[in-house]
Amino acid sequence: ITSEDMDKKNATLLTEFILTGLTYQPQWKIPLFLGFLLIYLLTIFGNLGLIALIWSDSHLHIPMYLFLGSLAFVDAWISFTVTPKMLVNLLAKSKMISLSECMIQFLSFAFGGTTECFLLATMAYDRFVAICKPLLYPMIMTNRLCIRLIALSFVSGFVHALIHEGFLFRLTFCHSNILHHFYCDIIPLFKISCTDPSINFLMVFILSGSIQVFTIVTVLVSYTFILSTVLKKKSEKSMRKAFYTCGAHLLSVSLYFGPLLFMYVCPASQQADDQDMMDSLFYTIIIPVLNPIIYSLRNKKVIASLSQILHRY
Question: Structure pTM?
Fold first, then answer.
C-alpha cells in the first residue's frame, strides 16, 4: 500500500461543497442579482407562456409547434435547475451545497442539456421534410411520429445524464471542497476529486462528443439538402420562405452548440475556470431567455395566436 493510498484512507470524505460563483467585486452583488433575477423571470414567463399559447391554440397542434413547445419546456427546466441557486448564492454568506443536492442538480442539468441537443436535431429534420418533400410532409411528419421523436429525445437525455451520474459515484472528495463554478457541473467536480477521474473524462469525451457530433451532423445534412432544394428552384420567393422558416432554428443551433463544443468536446483540463463559467453562463442563462424571443418574433402564426388571445381578453 502506497503512502498516497494511506492518505486517501485517512482523509475525511467531504459531503459539502462551496460554490465560488461568478467572480465579482462586492459592489456588483446587488446589480448582478437584480439583472439575473430579471433574466430568470423573463425566461420562465417567456417559455411557459409559449407552451401555454401552443397548448391553447388548436391551430398550433402540428409537429413544428410541438417541437417548439418541447424546446421551451427544456429551456425553462435548465433555467429552473441552475438560476435559483445562483441567485441565492449571490446574496448569501454561505455558498454551501450538499453532495446530494449537487448530484441532483447535475443530473437535472445534464438531462435538460442533452435533451435540447436531440430536440434541435429533430427540428432540423422536420424543416428538411417540410421544405424538401412538402407534398409528403403530412404523411411523413405525423403528430404520432412527432410525439415519438420528442419522447425519444427526452428518454435519451435522461439515460445519458444517468450514465454520467452513475460514474460520478465512483469519485471521492477529500482534499478540496471548493467548486469554481456557479452550479454543480461535471468538469469542476472532476478537478477536485481525490479519485483518478480519467475514466470519467473519457466517458464525457466519448458520450457527450458522440451526441454532439451526431446532432450537429444531422442539422448540417438537413440544411445542406434544404439549401440544395432552394437553389434548384431559383425562386426568390422560395429562398425568402426557406430563410424565414429556418433562420430562427439556425440561429438557435449556432448559439447553443458553440459553447457546448468548447466545454465538453475540447480537452477540459486545458480550459480556464473563468472561460468555463462564461461558456456555461451563456447556454444556461442567456440562451433559454433568447429562444422564445428568437422563435416568436419571426413566427407569424405565434404572433397571430398571441394577438387573438390579447384581443379576446
Answer: 0.88
